[in-house]
Amino acid sequence: MGNDQRRFGMLALLLALALALAACGQPAPGTGGTTGATPAPSGEPIKIGAIFDLTGATADVGTPYSKGQIAYIEWRNANGGVAGRPLQLISQDYAYEVPRAEELYTQFVTQDGVVVFSGWGTGDTEALKGRISEDQIPFISASYSAELADPARTPFNFLVAPTYSDQMIIAMKWALEDWKAKGNADAPKFAYLFNDSPFGRSPLADGTAFAQASGVETPLEVPSPRGATDLTPQLTQIRDFGANYVFMQNVSTPAALALKNAKSLGLDIQFVCLNWCANELLIKLAGADAEGVVGAIPFDPAAEGAKVALEYAREKSIDYGGADSTFVQGWTAMSILVKGIEKTLADGKELTGENVRNTLQTMGEIDTGGVTQPIVFTETDHAGAKSLRMFRVENGKWVAITDFISAR
Amino acid sequence: MQSGTFHTTYAADMALRPYWPQRLRIALVLVAVLVFPWFADRYWLSLANTIAIAAIGAIGLNILVGYTGQISIGQGGFLAVGAFSAGLMAARLDMPMWITVPIASLFTAVVGAFFGLPSLRLKGLYLAIATLAAQEIITWVLTHGKLLGIGESLSIPRETSNIFGISMTAIGNPDFAFYWVTVGSLILTVLFVSNLFRSRVGRAFVAIRDQDIAAQVIGVDLFRYKLLAFATSSFFAGLAGALTAHYRGIISWERFTIDTSILYLAMIIIGGLGSVSGSIYGAAFITLLPALLSNLARLLSGAVPQINSYLPYMQQGAFGLAIILFLIFEPEGIVKMWRNVKDYFRLWPFSY
């Protein structure tokens, strides 16, 4: 009897699994639609590896970023691929877990033989940096940690936005100007509210050095715990410190929570978002409370070069949750990686990691159609972008309020 | 025909592996372990290394939870102690692996015994919360690593990964070379722990688990043996952590959070509490489940292109489902399933 029940249970389970699988198998909307007269790419596919965060701690921005990357590959293939060869993106969710990232990286590099790799988080990119150099895989991560910018130590990591440290210094420069413009003679007080991870801590040391050199008291460091549902204690700490500017190095969801809590506390503090919370998601989540927030946005979705991406998304009805700038960021980062591949093939060189690396280092300015300043990698510097513009939320939209500022 | 096994000598009764199929299986497994790395590619080798390291940590946790009955959710913290003490010795003092790994394991044993002190007064869930404190304190020390001069992550120089001066990379790629170290350590761990529970100390552990008051009445020094259990368990956590540090070449505290502790608990629950081989099965199951699911999805994605967008959620669902199913259908874990299979043949045809 017991055995029968057990067997029945297992059968029911198998059935449930089969149903789940079948439910997932809705027919895909017609992919591979070649537009106009462009011939479909043929020949050996060019393999690109990628890990995305779709379910982990940074999934809110990880998802639109991944959609941007996938969309770029599809768009590129629909327009003839690269040198007549199709691009094949081998990607998987890693849930922002370092061991999972290592496992997928090893699989994609050693089994699938990907030539280049697109990564995501700071913790995992730093954990992989030794392997990346050994395997000679050009690697563009969505982490702009300054740790990864020096080719002497990480010869295969490339940064397509100003480093987090540079972003912090640029944001501080803006804050100092703003403070002076408001007619204050003394120095403002700064605080950090950051993701409790290597990503969050990445810019703090350089930011503090800059602040101190500018005559600002050592900024207060307040970590924002993962999965927090109330940041009132953290904000109270910042209020008691007397901060005038709070720099947020976090993703959109916790940043929006901080803005809402700050509103209910009635804080009169200027919030400044770095890259990963300065996007449309923040406005969507914080609503009216996001009004007046300033952000360092390295990838401008209003630029000419972003139109292709956004129009393609509309045409294919890709749902990226309205995060235009993050979608464009993923698209642009992938496009730079692919431009390196394209130039390598155009130069008649064999498609190896080392050749793509050398090409990226020597190809000069990479134009992104105004989404960023032209990206330049050199043999001594892999931080391709040096400057960005500050934006402010006005009437529910990010509006540029400065010209391009650089950290140095 | 003999249904069941009956020992006729004391030697047979005391033997660790009394039956010939068991000995045959050990021989087969050993051969497989020796042959595997010559045929596997780097991906499977790295999975094997991950499993071996996880198995060492899981065996360590099983000594404490499965054999001694002291619930601990601080395993991640103890792994971190092992990893960072080995890492700091290698990075700052350029000490080679064969020195750092044993020292780090011993150091972790001391730290573990220290955090085991509350076990004198606390039992069950209360002790679990005390070990949670250990986890959080260790993570705090590491994230506020300025105390120890650690940044966000700690890089371990490849040169320090040598054994008696012989570089690990001399015999092939790092995954291949470390296979021998991790699997070798696992075999030593298995030998030690299997025999531990045939000794006076091991039996004292089991007595404490079964009924601590009775154990005290028959003369088991509870405090001493509980601390010893914490120390032994942490020793293997430290070993696993130190191997992780040298194998990965770079470590950060993110790898050793409370999530890791829970994952290790899941390993021994799924594998089988109070069983050495169960710990290995559990470690393999927890490591391979996500990998196999993603490989399966990749196979299917040719036929079902949309599967990739559902896969992340299915993986999380499957993981939770596996644990619930094990708790419902076989609370004693994979090792009990295996035992059922063996018993079926051993007792055949009179299984009742």
What is the class of the largest domain in chain B in the CATH system? Mainly Alpha
The overall strand count of chain A is 15
Fraction of residues in β-strands of chain A? 15-25%
Q: What is the count of helical runs of chain A?
A: 13
> Which percent bin holds the helix content of chain B?
over 70%
Largest interface: A-B, 41 and 39 residues
Distance between the termini of chain A: 77 Å
**How helical, in percent, are the residues of chain A?**
40-55%
What is the number of helices of chain B? 14
**Which shape of chain B, going by the Cα principal axes?**
globular
Summarize the helix and strand pattern of chain A as letters: HEHEHEHEEHEHHEHEHEHEHHHEEEEE
Describe the main β-sheet of chain A briefly.
Answer: 8 strands, mixed
CATH A-level architecture of the largest domain in chain A? 3-Layer(aba) Sandwich
Quick structural gist:
Chain A has 408 residues and is of the alpha/beta class. Chain A is built from 13 helices and 15 strands. Chain B has two domains: 1-35, no CATH class; 40-347, ABC transporter involved in vitamin B12 uptake, BtuC.
3D architecture notes:
- The complex is a heterodimer of chains A (408) and B (352).
- Chain A has 408 residues and is an alpha/beta fold.
- Chain A has 13 helices and 15 strands.
- Chain A has helices at residues 2-24, 59-78, 98-111, 122-135, 164-181, 198-201, 204-213, 232-241, 252-265, 280-286, 304-315, 324-346, 353-362, and strands at residues 46-52, 87-93, 116-118, 139-140, 157-158, 190-195, 220-224, 245-249, 270-273, 294-297, 365-366, 375-376, 387-394, 397-400, 405-406.
- In chain A, a hairpin with an 8-residue loop joins β11 and β12.
- Chain B is mainly α and 352 residues long.
- Chain B has two domains: 1-35, no CATH class; 40-347, ABC transporter involved in vitamin B12 uptake, BtuC.
- Chain B is 72% helix and 3% strand.
- In chain B, a hairpin with a 2-residue loop joins β2 (162-163) and β3 (166-167).
- The A-B interface holds A 6, 9-10, 13, 20-21, 24-26, 28, 31, 54-55, 91-93, 95, 98-100, 102-104, 106-107, 110-111, 122-123, 126-127, 129-131, 147, 196-198, 201-202, 223 and B 41-43, 46-47, 50, 143, 152-153, 155, 158, 175, 248-252, 254-255, 290-291, 294, 300, 303-308, 310-316, 325, 328-329.
